[in-house]
Amino acid sequence: MRRTARFLGVLLLAAVFVGSAAGATRLQRHAVPGQGVSLAVPGFWVVVDSKLPQEFVDRLSRENPRLAPFIRSLQTPNGPTKFIALDPAVREGFATNVNVVVAPVPSSMTFPAYRLALTAEIQSLVPGQRVAQKVVTINGARAVRLRYRLRLQLGRAFTVQTLQYAFLRRGRSVVVTYTTLPGLVSRYARTFARSAATIRFSAP
Description:
Helix content is 28%, strand content 37%.
């Protein structure tokens, strides 16, 4: 269990690294390739997924140098990050984003054990800070919702506010992470809530 907890915690942390917000912005739905999950994000956000040709990803990085550190998280072959959508309006050097990380977990894992492992591991990463967590249901799929603040290195040091929805899906963990700077939480709150409400699985 401890090994599984640490693995899940690393995945959650990895998801954070992939880190106009007007609430009325029209959302556009995107399918995460090969994962049976889709979600909608603001139509003007830059979207990159694991099925795009490497040449395209490289060109996108060159054309959007401020987004390049975030886009590169998809350049690891067979890596767990499958999808990233970024607000192109980079503020204070950080691109507010949503990403989807998928990884295998033991098929015998129960949802209560999954919830406990995730919460315990995240708590160990942010000692002294309360990790807010709650079980929620989105379009019929049960998830652990976690909120916490994290200090990370991404070229430079950032403190980010994280909102995560972690789903246990038949031997795999699917984590949808929304990340922004603490000072921008109110600006993006509605956008994140609207996007999260669109998370949908095509199969159990």
